[in-house]
């Protein structure tokens, strides 16, 4: 497979202005995107090991296809967030009960250890996954920020490091949609942590990967309509600048392949997340989180992303 960060051995990275045939430069205001911001929301609860691996396995083909089909859009920001404020947030209550240890955290945590910078902020980009079955290391993004771009020497490996957010969350319940809302908010702690990720002259592609529904009263604040409003507001009201991809439980649908959620297999039905994704009409695609491979899902998504990019009219800078 071709290295997705290169073309002919050289980085493909749009630098903004482009020379025309008469020697003039364009300012990027013509139709068509040059930049894409990818936001991955990955459930880090105890049943998500297989799903995280399926996402990691599908990423090289996905980003390679993006590079092949989006000829003019080779400037990517890629950020991963998980679904709780801090993977060890529940240890404060657990430690006194188990001789000043937090068994569910494995060997990654010593009771009383404070979080790293932005590590306890819901919606902040993940740079150092921690906890059970995580990559458990600093992914060392070349950007120096909380997102990756095509300057990564090995983008697929770096993404694999970040996307393996693990299964050791001590916070209950998961809040994937609230994490998304915070990640794209124009103010607040996550905004401060994620400096530089969102660009107004880029389309935004949001991918949700979870095996549980974001239940009313036991999950994210708000509702599908409010979550959508927050995401559209992040693109200054331009819904056509968004692509929303959802991998979640389908066992409430005809021909669904997910069984009941038991330990690390199956999934919960996800009516609220489905409602959110489907509210974007042709700009949203749903798939089964229980699929043994996500390759065909992301193959379909590439076509939608390419069309969205072609139709995008960047706002005045």
Properties at a glance:
317 residues, alpha/beta, two-stranded antiparallel ribbon, 8 helices, disordered N terminus
Question: How does this model look, in words?
Answer:
The chain is α/β, with parallel strands linked by helices. 26% of the residues lie in helices and 14% in strands. The protein is built from eight helices and ten strands. The protein has helices at residues 49-69, 91-94, 155-163, 176-184, 189-193, 224-234, 271-278, 295-311; strands at residues 6-7, 10-11, 18-19, 25-26, 35-42, 75-81, 148-149, 203-209, 242-248, 284-288. The strands form three sheets. Strands 7-6-5-8-9-10 form a six-stranded mixed β-sheet, sandwiched between helices. Strands 1-2 form a two-stranded antiparallel ribbon. It has a two-stranded antiparallel ribbon with strand order 3-4. Helix 1 runs antiparallel to helix 3 (155-163), helix 1 crosses helix 8 and helix 6 (224-234) crosses helix 7 (271-278). Mean pLDDT is 90; it is low at 1-28.
Summarize the SSE layout with pairings:
Blueprint: E1 6-7, E2 10-11, E3 18-19, E4 25-26, E5 35-42, H1 49-69, E6 75-81, H2 91-94, E7 148-149, H3 155-163, H4 176-184, H5 189-193, E8 203-209, H6 224-234, E9 242-248, H7 271-278, E10 284-288, H8 295-311
Parallel strand pairs: 5-6, 5-8, 8-9, 9-10
Antiparallel strand pairs: 1-2, 3-4, 6-7
Helix pairs in contact: 1-3, 1-8, 4-6, 6-7
Largest sheet: 6 strands, mixed
Listing every helix as H and every strand as E from the N terminus to the C terminus, the arrangement reads EEEEEHEHEHHHEHEHEH
How many alpha or pi helices?
8
Measured between the Cα atoms of the first and last residue, the distance is 37 Å
Estimated share of beta-strand residues:
5-15%
Given as residue ranges, the uncertain stretches (5+ residues, pLDDT < 50) are 1-28
As a percent range, the share of helical residues equals: 25-40%
Q: Strand tally, please? A: 10
Radius of gyration: 19 Å
Average pLDDT value? 90
Shape: globular
């Amino acid at each position: 497979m071709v290295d997705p960060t290169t073309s002919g051995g050289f980085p493909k990275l749009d630098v903004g202005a482009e020379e025309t045939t008469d020697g003039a430069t364009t300012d990027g205001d013509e139709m068509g995107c040059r930049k894409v911001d990818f936001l991955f929301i990955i459930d880090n609860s105890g049943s998500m090991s297989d799903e995280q691996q399926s996402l990691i396995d599908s990423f090289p083909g996905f980003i390679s296809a993006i590079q092949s089909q989006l000829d003019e859009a080779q400037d990517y920001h890629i950020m991963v967030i998980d679904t709780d404020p801090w993977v060890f947030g529940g240890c404060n209550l657990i430690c006194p009960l188990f001789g000043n240890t937090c068994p569910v955290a494995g060997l990654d945590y010593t009771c009383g250890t404070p979080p790293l910078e932005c590590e306890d902020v819901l919606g902040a980009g993940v740079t150092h996954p921690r906890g059970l079955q995580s990559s458990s290391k600093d992914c060392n993004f070349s950007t120096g920020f909380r997102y990756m771009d095509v300057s990564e020497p090995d983008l697929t490996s770096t993404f694999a490091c970040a996307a393996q957010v693990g299964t050791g969350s001590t916070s209950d319940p998961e809040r994937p949609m609230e994490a998304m809302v915070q990640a794209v908010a124009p103010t607040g702690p996550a905004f401060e942590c994620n400096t530089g990720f969102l660009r107004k002259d880029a389309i935004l592609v949001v991918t949700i990967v979870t095996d549980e529904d974001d239940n009313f009263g036991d999950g994210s604040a708000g509702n599908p309509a409010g979550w959508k409003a927050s995401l559209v507001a992040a693109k200054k009201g331009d819904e056509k600048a968004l692509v929303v991809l959802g991998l979640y439980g389908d066992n409430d649908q005809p021909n669904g392949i997910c069984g009941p959620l038991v330990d690390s297999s199956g999934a919960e039905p996800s009516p609220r997340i489905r409602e959110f994704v489907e509210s974007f009409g042709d700009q949203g695609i749903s798939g089964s989180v229980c699929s043994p491979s996500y390759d065909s899902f992301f193959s379909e998504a590439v076509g939608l992303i390419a069309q969205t990019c072609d139709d995008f009219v960047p706002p005045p800078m």
